[in-house]
From TrEMBL:
<keyword id="KW-0547">Nucleotide-binding</keyword>
<keyword id="KW-0235">DNA replication</keyword>
<dbReference type="InterPro" id="IPR001238">
    <property type="entry name" value="DNA-binding_RecF"/>
</dbReference>
<comment type="function">
    <text>The RecF protein is involved in DNA metabolism; it is required for DNA replication and normal SOS inducibility. RecF binds preferentially to single-stranded, linear DNA. It also seems to bind ATP.</text>
</comment>
<feature type="binding site">
    <location>
        <begin position="30"/>
        <end position="37"/>
    </location>
    <ligand>
        <name>ATP</name>
    </ligand>
</feature>
<dbReference type="GO" id="GO:0003697">
    <property type="term" value="F:single-stranded DNA binding"/>
</dbReference>
<dbReference type="GO" id="GO:0000731">
    <property type="term" value="P:DNA synthesis involved in DNA repair"/>
</dbReference>
<dbReference type="Pfam" id="PF02463">
    <property type="entry name" value="SMC_N"/>
</dbReference>
<dbReference type="GO" id="GO:0006302">
    <property type="term" value="P:double-strand break repair"/>
</dbReference>
<dbReference type="GO" id="GO:0005737">
    <property type="term" value="C:cytoplasm"/>
</dbReference>
<keyword id="KW-0067">ATP-binding</keyword>
<dbReference type="InterPro" id="IPR027417">
    <property type="entry name" value="P-loop_NTPase"/>
</dbReference>
<keyword id="KW-0238">DNA-binding</keyword>
<feature type="domain" description="Cyclic nucleotide-binding">
    <location>
        <begin position="309"/>
        <end position="372"/>
    </location>
</feature>
<comment type="similarity">
    <text>Belongs to the RecF family.</text>
</comment>
<keyword id="KW-0227">DNA damage</keyword>
<dbReference type="GO" id="GO:0009432">
    <property type="term" value="P:SOS response"/>
</dbReference>
Amino acid sequence: MHLESLSLLNFKNLEEVDLQFSPDLNCFIGNNGAGKTNLMDAIYYLSFCKSFLNPVDGLNVRHEEEFFVIQGKYQRLGQDESIYCGLKRGQKKHFKRNKKEYQKLAEHIGLLPLIIITPSDIDLIMGGSEERRRFLDGLISQYDQIYLDHLLRYNRALLQRNKLLKQFASERSYNEDSLDVWDEQLVHYGNLIHLKRVEYIDRLQPVFQQYYELISCGNERIGMEHQSQLYETDFALLLRENRHKDRVVQYTTVGIHKDDILFNLGDYPIKKLGSQGQKKTYLVALKLAQFDFIKAMSGMTPILLLDDIFDKLDKSRVEQIVKLVADDHFGQIFITDTNREHLDQIIRQVAADSKIFRVSQGTVREQNHEEK
Ligand SMILES: Nc1ncnc2c1ncn2[C@@H]1O[C@H](COP(=O)(O)OP(=O)(O)OP(=O)(O)O)[C@@H](O)[C@H]1O
C-alpha cells in the first residue's frame, strides 16, 4: 500500500501543495519551522482522521483562512483509493473515501495503516501512565473490534460507578446494591481486557528487544513490564476491599484503568536514568515493533513516517537505523531532516526509488538528487 499523491490547501503553514510521491522513499528537507512536520501531519490525518500534534481541528487551518483541505490518492491492495478531509472553521469535519462520506470516522481507522516516529513520542516515556495505556489500547484495538468494545463498556461502567460514588457523597446516602451492578460489569470486562493486554505485551516484547539490540549493537539490556493490580488480587475482591476508600475519595481507585507499563533500561526505569539518546533508541525500537505488529495484523505494509528521527543519536545508532529502514521489510517511507547528510546516507543505501522535496516557509518543491 502506498500514497501516490497529496494535495493540500491551507493546512497549517502550507498554503497550496501538490506532490507526487515515490512508492519507496520520500525525503523532506528544510530548516526549522519550514513545514516538514506539517506535511507528515497531513499524511497522518488521512489515516487517523486527526492530527498527531493538535487535537483541536480548527487550529490546523492556516492562520487568517477559513478552511483546510487534505486529499490523498493511494494504491491499496491493487485498487485506487481517494481520501478527502475538509474542515471549515466552526463546522463539522468532512471525511470521504472515494467521494463517499463516512458516517462514523471510526470506520476509517485501520484502512490505511501507518506508523509515525516523532519527537513527541517522548511523552510515552516521560508522561503519565495514561499515555502508555493509550499506546497499548490503540495498538490492540486498531484490529481487534471486540477489545475496543470491551474497553468502551468498561469505561462506561467506570463512569457510572464514579458518578454514583459522587452522588452518595452529596446526598449522604449509600446503597450497596447500586454499586454491585457496576462492579460486576467492571470485573467482567476488566478481566477480559487484562488477558488481552498480557497477551499483546508478551508478543510485542521480543520484537521490541530485537530492534533495540540491532540499533544499540547489543550493548544494552532493556525491558518492558506490564504493571496491573490484577496480577496480585482477584478483581472482584479488590473492588470489595477498596469500596470504603472509593466512597471517601469519590472515585474508583482500583482496576485496569490504573495499569502501567514500566520501561526499563538494565534494572532501572529509563524515565529516570536513561540518556536522551537511549530514550530515543527505546522509542524507535518500540515503534518499529509496533510496525511489525500492524503489518502482521492488517496484512498490509504500513506507511512509515520518520520525523526528525536522527536527532540525539550517535553516528553508530544512525547507521544502524539507516541499515534497518533500507531493508525491503519496510514499504513506503517518508522522512524529514534538516541535515542533507543523513538523507543522502539513506538514499545511497536504499536500492529502491527515492524522491527529495525541499520545504521552505510553507512551500514544497521536488528537487533532483544532485541539487544541494
Ligand atoms: N494553523 C497554522 N497556520 C499557519 N502556520 C502554522 C499553523 N500551525 C503551525 N504553523 C506554523 O508551522 C511552522 C512549523 O512547521 P513544522 O513543525 O512543520 O516545522 P518543521 O519543518 O518540521 O521544523 P523543525 O525542523 O523545527 O521540526 C511554525 O512556523 C508554525 O508557526
